Amino acid sequence: VNLQGWKAPSFAQIPLAKPLDVSLRLFIPASYSADTGLGVKLFGKDSVWAWIDGPASSLASAAGTWTTVKMRVDFSAVTPPFNAFGIQFYGLTGAKTDPILIDSIEISDPSKTNTKIVNAMQLGSSFSESLDSYSVIWDKMASVALVDGALEITNTNTSGSADVAVGKGDIASKIINLKGPVTVKIKVFVPESFAGSDFYFQTNMQDSAYKDFIVQWTIDKFTPGAWNDFEFTEDTFPTGFNRNGGLVNFVMQFGGNVNGTIKVDDVQIWGNVEIEDAQPILTVDFDSQADADQFVFDSASGGLSESVLNAANSKYWGNSTLPFGWIANSWIGAGGYDISESESTVDLTERGEEIVNSEFGIANTTVPIIFVNP
Fold first, then answer.
1. SS3 state of residue 156
2. Distance (Å, rounded) from C-alpha 40 to C-alpha 92?
3. DSSP code string of 43-82
4. Under a CB-based contact definition with an 8 Å cutoff, are residues 186 and 195 in contact?
5. Integer Cα distance of 146 and 120 in angstroms
6. Tens digit of each residue's pLDDT (9 = 90 or more) over 134-193
7. Tell me, what's the pLDDT at 347?
8. DSSP bridge pairs for 51
9. What is the Cα–Cα distance from 276 to 115, expressed in whole angstroms?
């Protein structure tokens, strides 16, 4: 099937004279698993309708699944104008009843690198496998440990108030955008014994000149003996805080006249992130019959024709696509199309066995009809 300039208005949008990325989302039925040579190819038609061979991709291992095929097509060596651009499936063996489904076709220009700004997580630590470079800093009296997927921080100063600081040792190497709103999310667990104390917990971000930006939570903001979710968003930093560079320190601290261990998990820093936003040249997602109508029949082998496929409603936008097969044959006398070795008796050829006795052959799919004289 292909897009043709005289039948598909969208064809004019495709700059075939330059390299393009094409993405196809396909479903290959499980019944195609024996077709080890199955594949999909892109092709074009030049100004005189001559075939232009494009890239191909094997579908041999895709039977029974949805799969996304991505190929780069380059017809830049061909002199425009182009008359068609299409998709070819090859390597099919025998008649088929289950249809190949095409969910979407997307064509984009790899030379365009459009971007957009989104608010997204810039840094995250879940402590599922490691301390993620967090350790005790500033010579504080504390210890850290990874226990059951959380960071445990223990005050080791048992003779006075807690003065604990744990920092991320590799923060200076991380790219953190401080321009625009910055959000910090964190989960903290404190023991029930901390209830009613002067305990506090805080985060401290230090800019390239070691200027502090501190956010603090006191014990009245906690539910001791349970996990507490904290989050703050800030777009107005302290005067003089350098938002043009990254951070030299990201520190979690706690203090107060308490002894014991707290737990920290899911530490995240969110902010404005620049991501690629390449807009496709053409997207056909077959949400309507009009999408399917953009593609026209080009050619087929094995006895199929455009009228046969149209009669089978083979190009239908819904998942109720009707299957089609082929049964070009003669009884005897046409060489490779014969189904019998004899004119007067049933002596089936290999082709005849397939047509008559295969899973979807005449013997297994026909229903007897009895005419009764009323």
1. coil
2. 11
3. EEE-TT--EEEEEEEE-TT-BTEEEEEEEEE--TTSPSP-
4. no
5. 26
6. 999 998 999 999 999 999 999 998 788 899 999 999 999 998 999 999 999 999 999 999
7. 86
8. 45
9. 4
pLDDT at residue 312 greater than cutoff 70: no
Burial 272-282 (b: 16+ CB within 10 A, else e): ebeeeeeeebb
Peptide bond into 29 cis (omega under 30): no
pLDDT, tens only, 290-304: 766 766 666 665 545
- Rounded to whole angstroms, the Cα distance separating 204 from 248 reads 11
Run of H or E residues at 238 = none
Q: What is the pLDDT of residue 332?
A: 79
**Integer angstrom CA distances of residue 74 from 4, 42, 88:** 18, 10, 16
Cβ–Cβ under 8 Å, residues 332 and 340: yes
What distance in Å separates the CA atoms of residue 90 and residue 123, rounded to the nearest whole number? 46
Residue 321 confidence (pLDDT) above 70? no
Q: Taking 70 as the threshold, does the pLDDT of residue 324 lie above it?
A: no
Q: Residue 181 forms beta bridges with which residues?
A: none
